[in-house]
């Protein structure tokens, strides 16, 4: 099979298309023909070495496809089933081994590309607004990178729960996308001071919560945008990791709360995975949630996909199509 391999940490140029031996499913595993693989910032962290991975490795963890073989001790899945997953290492390939406990059925009415695009970011958006900081009617959230894949999903879910969204974007095109998703106000971070704009838009109160997947370049503005006892939810580091923090800064910012959640800790049981994925696919099927696929690339174009993602040249979800 064809796959993307990383033999040394570095920039997008280390992503090499190669021939690899097709895997065989072991106990509790599914062998899946990949229809689409999600491209996410965590893939760039692993490729560059920010997140340590044993070399060499096939990147990617998210996707959707058709089961072509079933290993021993698997129940609930059969050859021919359409499944999606958010946690199967090696998904930048034509075939991948998916732990059966991590695979969810793709319902009729949801195509494979949409399913692949919905998993990692959709499950993350779900836990952020339902578990980490459950948005309530009338509350206001600041969403960074509001036209990105995560930003568009967060905006829609916040609005569905009765919240208000202040979104940050860099261009007019991205502003249009964020407003179409439901953002109430937009801050062009390339043209204005984010915290000052938030202060003006909230009449000096600040926002109840900041959902920040950007990290280093937005962290200080995020803290400064919160109301007293508000919460900063730092769930990513697209601009780089946040430097070590003196806890006294949280006091100075208004006795605010800081959390750094991850998806794995919000999918601790099969029941929790099925709840979150079930909600997502139900909303997608009913039209209540729109998944925007902003760009697709062939497997051999993985380098370009990473370059465009890191260069902020993408909107919505980025997919590789083996």
From TrEMBL:
<protein>
    <submittedName>
        <fullName>Quinone oxidoreductase</fullName>
    </submittedName>
</protein>
<feature type="region of interest" description="Disordered">
    <location>
        <begin position="1"/>
        <end position="22"/>
    </location>
</feature>
<dbReference type="InterPro" id="IPR020843">
    <property type="entry name" value="ER"/>
</dbReference>
<keyword id="KW-0560">Oxidoreductase</keyword>
<dbReference type="InterPro" id="IPR011032">
    <property type="entry name" value="GroES-like_sf"/>
</dbReference>
<dbReference type="InterPro" id="IPR002364">
    <property type="entry name" value="Quin_OxRdtase/zeta-crystal_CS"/>
</dbReference>
<dbReference type="InterPro" id="IPR013154">
    <property type="entry name" value="ADH-like_N"/>
</dbReference>
<dbReference type="Pfam" id="PF00107">
    <property type="entry name" value="ADH_zinc_N"/>
</dbReference>
<dbReference type="InterPro" id="IPR036291">
    <property type="entry name" value="NAD(P)-bd_dom_sf"/>
</dbReference>
<keyword id="KW-0521">NADP</keyword>
<dbReference type="InterPro" id="IPR013149">
    <property type="entry name" value="ADH-like_C"/>
</dbReference>
<dbReference type="Pfam" id="PF08240">
    <property type="entry name" value="ADH_N"/>
</dbReference>
<dbReference type="InterPro" id="IPR047618">
    <property type="entry name" value="QOR-like"/>
</dbReference>
<feature type="domain" description="Enoyl reductase (ER)">
    <location>
        <begin position="10"/>
        <end position="320"/>
    </location>
</feature>
């Amino acid at each position: 099979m064809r796959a993307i391999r990383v033999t040394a940490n570095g920039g997008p140029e280390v992503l090499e298309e190669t021939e690899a031996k097709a895997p065989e499913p072991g106990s509790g595993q599914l062998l899946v023909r990949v229809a689409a693989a999600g491209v996410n910032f965590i893939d760039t962290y692993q490729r560059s070495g920010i997140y340590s991975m044993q070399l060499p490795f096939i990147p990617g963890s998210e996707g959707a496809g058709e089961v072509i073989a079933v290993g021993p001790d698997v129940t609930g899945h059969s050859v021919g089933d359409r499944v999606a997953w958010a946690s199967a290492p090696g998904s930048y390939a034509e075939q991948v081994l998916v732990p059966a406990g991590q695979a969810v059925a793709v319902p009729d009415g949801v195509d494979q590309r949409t399913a692949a695009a919905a998993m990692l970011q959709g499950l993350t958006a779900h836990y952020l607004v339902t578990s980490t900081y459950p948005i309530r009617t009338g509350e206001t959230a600041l969403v960074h990178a509001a036209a990105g894949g995560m930003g568009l999903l967060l905006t829609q879910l916040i609005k569905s729960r009765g919240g208000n969204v202040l979104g940050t974007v860099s261009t007019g095109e991205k502003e249009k996308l964020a407003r179409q998703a439901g953002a109430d106000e937009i801050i062009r971070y390339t043209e204005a001071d984010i915290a000052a704009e938030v202060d003006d838009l909230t009449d000096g109160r600040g926002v109840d919560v900041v959902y920040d997947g950007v990290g280093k370049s937005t962290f200080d503005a995020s803290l400064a945008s919160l109301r007293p006892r508000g919460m900063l939810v730092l769930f990513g580091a697209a601009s780089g990791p946040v430097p070590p923090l003196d806890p006294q800064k949280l006091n100075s910012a208004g006795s605010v709360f800081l959390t750094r959640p991850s998806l794995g800790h919000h999918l601790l049981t099969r029941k929790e995975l099925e709840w979150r994925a079930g909600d997502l696919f139900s909303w997608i099927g009913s039209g209540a949630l729109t998944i925007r696929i902003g760009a697709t690339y062939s497997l051999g174009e993985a380098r370009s996909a990473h370059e465009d993602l890191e260069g902020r040249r993408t909107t919505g979800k980025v997919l590789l199509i083996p």
